[in-house]
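Tokens in:
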């Protein structure tokens, strides 16, 4: 089985898809990882802020950090080999590296459909908020 390990920069939560200003690239990448899991690929994700030991224990990731600093993150490894550093790869790249070929269907958009509608979010008690949680409470956040 193919194994993908992602070493993310420091983020507030495990996927970075939370809080008041979600990076569309992180949302796309998170969706791509969810998709690749459904294809039978093992996926592990490590956050520098929450799991620094994973970065220290992996020689090639530690070396990338020493050489490039956080600009070298994320590091994406497939079956132990670094395939990407410093950028989030596309679904097509992940699929190719996992030996799945081209993914079927249209690519995931990098900007949510509601992006033109501003949604104000504010975190309370350190919790992460999402547009869905905000909308479920009639415009107020978690």
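Residues out:
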């Amino acid at each position: 089985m193919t194994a993908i390990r992602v070493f993310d920069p420091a983020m507030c939560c495990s996927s970075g898809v939370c809080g008041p200003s979600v990076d569309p690239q992180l949302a796309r990448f998170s969706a791509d990882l969810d998709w690749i899991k459904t294809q039978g690929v093992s996926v592990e994700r490590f956050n520098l802020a929450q799991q620094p030991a994973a970065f220290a224990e992996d020689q090639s990731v530690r070396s990338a950090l020493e050489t490039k600093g956080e600009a070298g993150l994320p590091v994406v490894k497939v079956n132990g080999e670094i395939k990407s550093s410093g950028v989030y790869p596309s679904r097509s790249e992940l699929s190719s590296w996992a030996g799945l070929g081209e993914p079927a269907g249209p690519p995931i958009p990098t900007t949510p459909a509601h992006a033109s509608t501003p949604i104000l979010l504010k975190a309370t008690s350190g919790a992460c908020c999402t547009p869905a949680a905000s909308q479920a409470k009639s415009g107020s956040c978690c």
